Amino acid sequence: MTVPAILFMIISVSFVISLAIWCYYQLLFKGDRNQGRDQASTKKSSP
Amino acid sequence: MNNKLTREQGWGTRLGVILAVSGSAVGLGNFLRFPGNAAENGGGAFLIPYFIAFLLLGIPIGWAEWTMGRYGGHKGFHSAPAIMGVWGRGPVARYCGSFGVLVPLVVYFYYVMIEAWCLSYAWSYATGGIGISPDQSVTNQVLASQQFFSETTGSNSNGLLGQNGLHSTVIFWGITFAINIFFLYRGLSRGIEIVCRWAMPAMAILGIIVLVRVLTLGTPDPELPDQNVAAGLNFMWNPDFAALGNFKTWLAAAGQIFFSLSIGFGVIINYASYMKKDDDIVLSSLTASATNEFFEVALGGMITLTAAVMFLGVLATQANTGGTFSTGFSALPVVFVRMPWGDFFGAIWYFMLFLAAITSSLSMLQPSKAFFQEALGLTHKRATILIAGICIVGNLFVLWFSKGLVALDTLDFWVGTFMIFVVAGIQLICFSWIFGVDKALEEAQRGALFKIPRIFRFILKYVSPLYLLVIFIGFCWNNVPSYVQSTLGIGEGESADMSAIYAWLVILFTAALLLAVTAIGTRRWKAAGMDINGSELLAAGVDSSDKPGSAP
Could you list the pLDDT tens digit for every one of the 552 residues in chain B? Predict the structure, then answer.
């Protein structure tokens, strides 16, 4: 296997895996935190 | 105002809708079409135009579709014609929007057959293989594999599947069809969402099992030391930079991104219409695209051709792979027959493809169901029955006119390929030019978990439409003349030509039906006082839609 082939494979696969991990991390942790904060502020402001 | 003519249950969770959109996008093309495309067009170098197209076409058009869908949803619409009428501010966009229902519906006519083939192959492997002898030469094994494929699909003559009793493919079609209709009837959160929540992780696990198996095979035949894992990966990934100077490479890369992400399919716009008005769509869209890319590059790019080269060698792989069907149903069975525990891994592989196909096929039915419900005022049950009836007729057409798979291929080319460009183009025009890219991006940002970079304003308004136009012209230039010739029967056999012409009639009849239903729907929506032309946007801007019941 040539060095350029290894490089292209590693960079491409790492890119898509990193993008997927970043998206799911943001969605599952940061997103839920934001949603929780929104719900809390809604409760606080409601009479 | 009655702005909920067709009240639907929404998505259960945000992850559910993302997995549903990802499930719609991940299909056979990820595992079979992508590696063949890459290997033919520069190997690793193919990934450069591929990721550029992802950035300039895939991500922005995805955001546009999600935004259009969510916005249409809180105007009370769930179908492409109604939503595009709002974004395009008038009847032209609305009637053009009916193509957003035509595409998934007609694609379903043949896609469910491919799904049935996958189930048939999985069953055959699970119950003892598909009858290829491991002692034969590669050439004879490929012939035996092609023979099994012809028998499964009935591609030797028309009407084969109706002869000599009940053909096994008809049984698998029946099972597949029943599963699809059952989950469609259960609705979004209890049907499609549940299937995708189970099928997507299952697909990833099965894919990783097959990947680990392939990457740990080493050199399967010590007498052929050149056929090993490294050679297989090299065949797929070794970059040929000269290919970057060829327009065909850029066309193939953009086409792959375009079809892989289900852009212009009419599905995302429908799925997003069930989201709440402040639900994030920016990160959700990106996550769905990233999921698709994981399956395509990290699994599809590592498994298929690597395995083929290890067992068939470079020359036989080049001769027997390339198209989706030739790779998936001719070359890979030969790989499995030569692989230790081949029947087991064959069953896993084809079951994984079946899961990939069913999450896609389910998404093709939902837009039509939503359209018939809101345009004709049908109940959930009656709309499902109507869709089932239409699809049975469409499926039986493809099942009967099976010779050379000409009917299937004709539907795939004109609707599953050509028409997708048209729908995506109309969506982009509505989003960026008629509605206005600034207001559209403002709408997209509502509830967003991260901000869309400013550069995408320019990309969505100028780069994506121009990029799409260039690809469309290139695609038509390369393909349309030959398809028109084959449809008209120039230099072709009479039987095959008639199948193509009948397929054309099916497309025209379905399009006419959908246009007629759009006309009926327009009258109903007008009578109900719904904002069918998006006129509130002109008067009061984006925020006017937030007020419920504000239509005249």
Answer: 344 444 456 788 888 889 999 998 998 888 888 888 888 888 889 999 999 999 999 999 999 999 999 999 989 999 999 999 999 998 999 999 999 999 999 999 999 999 999 999 999 999 987 888 888 887 788 888 888 988 888 888 888 667 777 888 899 999 999 999 999 999 888 888 999 989 999 989 988 998 998 888 888 778 888 888 898 899 888 898 998 988 888 888 888 888 889 888 889 999 999 998 888 999 999 999 999 999 999 998 888 888 888 888 888 777 766 666 667 787 788 888 888 888 998 999 899 899 999 999 999 999 999 999 999 999 999 999 999 999 999 999 999 998 888 889 889 889 988 898 899 999 999 999 999 999 999 999 998 888 999 999 999 999 999 999 998 998 898 888 888 887 776 665 555 568 888 999 999 999 999 999 999 999 999 999 898 888 775 444 444 444 333 332
Contacts of A34 in chain B (CB under 8 A): 449
Q: CB B239 to CB A4 under 8 A?
A: yes
In A, which residues are within 8 Å of B296 by CB distance?
16
Enumerate the residues of chain A whose CB falls inside 8 A of the CB of residue B239.
Answer: 4-5, 8
B1 contact A CB<8A: no
Distance from the first to the final alpha carbon of chain A: 68
From B240's Cα to the closest Cα of chain A, the distance in A is 10
Q: What is the DSSP string of B35-89?
A: HHHHHHTTGGGGHHHHHHHIIIIIHHHHHHHHHHHHHHHTTT--SHHHHHHHHHT
**Rounded to a whole number, what is the distance in Å from the CA of A16 to chain B's nearest CA?**
5
Q: Do A23 and B233 touch (CB under 8 A)?
A: no
The stretches of B58-192 forming alpha helices (DSSP H) are 59-73, 80-88, 91-97, 99-126, 138-153, 168-186
Residue B43: CB atoms within 10 Å? 24
ipTM of the modeled complex: 0.84
Do B327 and B335 meet the contact criterion of CB atoms below 8 Å apart?
A: no
| Chain B residue closest in CA terms to A16 | B294
**B485: Cβ–Cβ under 8 A, 6 or more apart, which residues?**
B491, B492
Q: Which of B18, B237, B294 sits opposite A5 (nearest CB)?
A: B237
Interface check for A18 against chain B (CB to CB < 8 A): the answer is no
How many CB atoms are closer than 10 A to CB B492?
15
Question: Could you tell me if B399 and B500 are in contact, meaning their C-beta atoms sit under 8 angstroms apart?
Answer: no
Closest residue in chain A to residue B22, using alpha carbons only: A20
pTM: 0.88
CA distance B126 to B115: 17
Q: Does A10 touch chain B (CB under 8 A)?
A: no
